[in-house]
Design a protein that fits this description.
Elements: H1 2-6, H2 10-19, H3 25-34, H4 38-50, H5 57-64, H6 70-86, H7 92-104, H8 108-117, H9 123-136, H10 140-152, H11 159-172, H12 175-187, H13 194-206, H14 210-219, H15 225-234, H16 239-248, H17 255-267, H18 271-283, H19 290-302, H20 306-314, H21 321-333, H22 337-350, H23 355-367, H24 373-385, H25 392-404, H26 408-417, H27 423-435, H28 439-451, H29 458-471, H30 474-486, H31 494-506, H32 510-517, H33 526-539, H34 542-555, H35 560-572, H36 576-588, E1 598-600, E2 612-614, H37 624-646
Antiparallel strand pairs: 1-2
Length: 648
C-alpha cells in the first residue's frame, strides 16, 4: 500500500486495503497519507472513527497537514480537542503539526502558546514558529528574536530556519542582521539551496542594496523561476534583458514573472515593448490569468490607450472586482469620467465593490466638472449600504469629492460622522476648507490636529500655506513654513515654495516673491510663474512681469495665459504698442486663448451623466432664447432691487 501510495497509484493501494479483513492503525494511516484531497482524507478519517479505530500521533499529524483553509481549520480544532483528551499534545511531531496549522492560518497567538508549553522541542518546532512569524510579514521582529533564542539553546539551524529569518530581516529592513545571517548561510553550506538564495535576493532588494542582490544571483549555480522573477521585478531598467536571458536559460516564466515585467514596462512607458509582451502572453495563454490581465489593463491605461485596456478586460472569462477596479481607475486617470461611472455602475451589478472601487470612482467624480454631483451622492449611499463608510481612505475621498464639487457642508458632515479620524481625514478636511478660502476654519482644524497629536505631513502644510496666501497672512505663512522645516523636519517640495511665492505675490511683495523663486528646487513650475505674473499685473510690476513672462513663454510657448496677462499689464499701463506686439506674437505662433466654461446641473435630461457646459455668449443650447430672456429679466430684477434698497 505504501509503495502504491507513494508512486501515485492510490486506487491500487485502496484495493489492497479493502481486501484486508482487520486492518490495523498502520494500514489506516498508510491510506490516509496517500490521499491528496482534504475532503476525502476527512471522510476516510470519519470512517476510521466509526469503525472504532483510535487515532494515534501519526493519524493526527497526517490529518492536520490538510487543515489549510478556514473550513478545514474547524475540523483541525476538533482534532486538537481529541489530541488534548488523549494526551498526545506532548508528542513533539504532533505539537509541530498543530503549530504549523495555526501559523498557516495566521493564528499566531495559539501557535505561540503551543510552542511555549511544549515539554521538548526539535528543529521542526523552531522552524514552524519562526516560519509562522515571518510569513505574516508584520511579525518579522518576533521571528528574528525566536531565531536568536534557538541559537542560544544550541540548536543548529537548517535552510528552513535560515530562509525564514532572512525573510524576516527583509520585512524589517534589517540589513545588518540580514548580512550576518547571510554569512551564517555560507558557513553552514546552505547557499547552494535555491530557495535560500532566492530569499537572500529578496531581502537585499527590500533593503535597497541591489548590488548584493545581483551578486547572490550571479553566484547561484542553479536558478529557478522564482530566482529570475525576483531579479526581473527588482531591476526595473534591465527587466526585459533579464527576461530574455531567463528564456535562454530555459526557465519557463509564470504569471508572477509577467506581473513584475509589465509593471516595469508601464513605469518606464515602454509602449512598443508592452505590446510585444502582451503578444507573448496571448501566445502562451498567460493573458487569461487574472493577475496578468489586470496588469495589462493598468499598463495600457498608463499608456493612455483605454481602447486596449477595454479589449483586455472584455477578453477575460471571469471578472473579479480587481479587474473592474483597474478599468475604472484607468478611465479616471485618463479623464474619461463618464466611462468610469458607466463601468462602476456595471461593476456593482456583477461584483461586490471594495474600498479601491469606491476610491477610484470618487476620485474621478471629484475631478470631473462635467459630471453631476448626484452620482457622487449615489456612490456615497452605496458605500454606506456595503458598510465601508468607516474606512479612513474612503472618508478622505468623500471629503475631497464633496469639497471639490462645492459642497463643503457635506464634507464637514462626513468628517463629523467618521468614527476614527486618521491623518488622511484631517488633512482632507483642511484641504477642503483651504480650497473654499475659509482661512479661520483651516487654522482651527490645523491647531486642533496639533492638539490631538495627529502627525502633520507635507500635504497638511501645503493646504495651510495656500490658505495663508489667499487670506494675505504673510507673517503667519512664514511661521508655518519655518515650523514645517525646523519643528517637523519636513523637506519642503517645489509645491511648498510655490505657495510662499504665491502668498508674497498676492500681498504685493512681488520683488520678494521673485527672489524666493531661486530657492525652489529644480526651478519654478508653470503655475508658480503664472501666479507671480498675475501679481505683477495687479501691482503694475512691468519689469519683473517681463522677466517672468519671458520664462513662461520659453517653458510653454503655446500656453495663452502668459501672453494674455502680460498684454493686459501693458494695456493697463498705456503701453499699447507692446500690448499689440504681444497679441500679434500670439497670432503668429497660433496660440489660442482657452475658453472658460461654467457648468449647470439642469436635471431634466433623462439618463444623462453630464452637466451642461456653457461659455460667454454661448448659443449652443436648444433653449438659448428662453435662457437669455431669463438672464435679462434677472439682471433687471437685480437693478430694481438695488435701486429700491438705496432709496430706503
Amino acid at each position: 500500500m505504501s509503495m502504491y501510495s507513494k508512486s501515485g497509484q492510490f486506487d491500487n493501494a485502496l484495493d489492497i486495503f479493502d481486501k484486508l479483513k482487520n486492518p490495523d492503525i498502520v494500514s489506516w494511516n498508510t491510506v490516509i497519507s496517500g490521499i491528496l484531497n482534504s475532503k476525502e482524507a476527512f471522510s476516510f478519517a470519519l470512517q476510521m472513527n466509526i469503525n472504532g479505530v483510535i487515532f494515534d500521533a501519526v493519524t493526527y499529524t497526517t490529518l492536520l497537514a490538510f487543515c489549510s483553509s478556514y473550513e478545514e481549520f474547524l475540523f483541525g480544532l476538533q482534532l486538537h480537542s481529541l489530541i488534548a483528551k488523549q494526551g498526545l499534545d506532548c508528542e513533539v511531531y504532533v505539537g509541530n503539526a498543530l503549530i504549523t496549522m495555526y501559523s498557516r492560518l495566521n493564528r499566531l497567538g495559539e501557535a505561540t502558546k503551543l510552542f511555549d508549553t511544549m515539554p521538548t522541542r526539535d528543529l521542526v518546532s523552531w522552524n514552524s514558529i519562526i516560519s509562522g512569524y515571518s510569513q505574516e510579514g508584520i511579525y518579522g521582529f518576533e521571528a528574528i528574536l525566536c531565531f536568536l533564542e534557538m541559537l542560544k539553546e544550541g540548536m543548529k539551524p537548517d535552510h528552513v530556519s535560515l530562509s525564514s529569518t532572512v525573510s524576516a530581516c527583509g520585512h524589517e529592513r534589517n540589513l545588518r542582521l540580514g548580512r550576518q545571517i547571510h554569512n551564517l548561510v555560507i558557513k553552514t553550506g546552505y547557499e547552494s539551496h535555491i530557495s535560500t538564495s532566492n530569499i537572500l535576493i529578496s531581502m537585499y532588494s527590500k533593503c535597497e542594496v541591489k548590488e548584493d542582490a545581483n551578486l547572490v544571483f550571479k553566484c547561484m549555480k542553479d536558478r529557478n523561476v522564482v530566482s529570475w522573477t525576483t531579479m526581473i521585478s527588482m531591476n526595473e531598467e534591465d527587466s526585459l534583458s533579464l527576461f530574455n536571458k531567463m528564456r535562454l536559460d530555459e526557465v519557463y516564466p509564470n504569471d508572477v514573472t509577467f506581473v513584475g515585467l509589465i509593471h516595469n514596462i508601464s513605469f518606464h512607458n515602454l509602449i512598443k515593448e508592452g505590446a510585444m509582451i502582451h503578444c507573448f502572453c496571448l501566445k502562451t495563454s498567460f493573458s487569461s490569468e487574472s493577475n496578468v490581465a489586470n496588469s495589462l489593463i493598468t499598463m495600457y491605461a498608463k499608456f493612455n490607450s483605454m481602447r486596449d485596456s477595454r479589449w483586455v478586460f472584455d477578453e477575460l472569462n471571469s471578472r473579479e472586482i480587481i479587474s473592474w477596479n483597474a478599468l475604472i481607475s484607468g478611465y479616471s486617470q485618463n479623464g474619461l469620467y463618464k466611462e468610469a461611472i458607466e463601468t462602476f455602475l456595471l461593476a456593482i451589478k456583477e461584483s461586490k465593490p471594495n474600498e479601491f472601487t469606491f476610491g477610484s470612482i470618487l476620485s474621478g467624480i471629484a475631478a470631473a466638472e462635467s459630471i453631476s454631483l448626484r452620482y457622487g451622492q449615489n456612490c456615497h449611499s452605496h458605500l454606506l449600504k456595503v458598510g465601508l463608510n468607516n474606512e479612513p481612505i474612503l472618508s478622505g475621498a468623500l471629503l475631497d469629492m464633496y469639497a471639490k464639487r462645492g459642497s463643503i457642508s457635506e464634507s464637514r458632515r462626513v468628517f463629523e460622522e467618521t468614527f476614527e479620524k486618521s491623518q488622511v481625514t484631517w488633512t482632507a478636511m483642511i484641504s477642503a476648507y483651504a480650497r473654499h478660502g475659509d482661512y479661520e476654519s483651516v487654522m482651527g482644524f490645523f491647531r486642533e490636529m496639533e492638539s490631538e497629536g495627529v502627525d502633520l505631513d507635507s500635504i497638511t502644510f501645503l493646504s495651510v500655506l495656500a490658505s495663508c496666501g489667499r487670506k494675505g497672512m504673510v507673517d503667519m505663512g512664514h511661521r508655518i513654513f519655518d515650523s514645517m522645516v525646523k519643528d517637523h523636519k519636513i523637506e519642503p517640495s517645489q509645491e511648498h515654495f510655490s505657495c510662499v511665492v504665491d502668498m508674497l505675490g498676492r500681498a504685493g511683495r512681488v520683488k520678494e516673491a521673485e527672489e524666493f523663486l531661486g530657492r525652489i528646487p529644480g526651478g519654478p513650475g508653470l503655475s508658480t510663474l503664472q501666479s507671480l505674473l498675475g501679481a505683477c499685473r495687479i501691482y503694475g510690476e512691468v519689469e519683473i512681469g517681463e522677466r517672468v513672462a519671458e520664462a513662461l513663454m520659453k517653458m510653454e510657448p503655446s500656453e495663452s495665459g502668459s501672453y494674455v496677462l502680460m498684454s493686459n499689464l501693458y494695456a493697463e499701463r498705456g503701453e499699447w504698442q507692446k500690448a499689440a506686439k504681444l497679441r500679434k506674437g500670439m497670432r503668429e505662433r497660433r496660440v489660442k486663448k482657452e475658453v472658460g466654461f461654467s457648468w449647470a446641473d439642469v436635471g431634466g435630461v433623462e439618463g444623462s451623466l453630464c452637466l451642461h457646459g456653457f461659455s460667454s455668449d454661448d448659443m449652443s443650447h436648444p433653449q438659448t432664447e428662453e435662457i437669455y430672456r431669463m438672464a435679462k429679466w434677472l439682471g433687471l430684477e437685480m437693478i430694481f432691487r438695488e435701486i429700491e434698497h438705496s432709496s430706503i
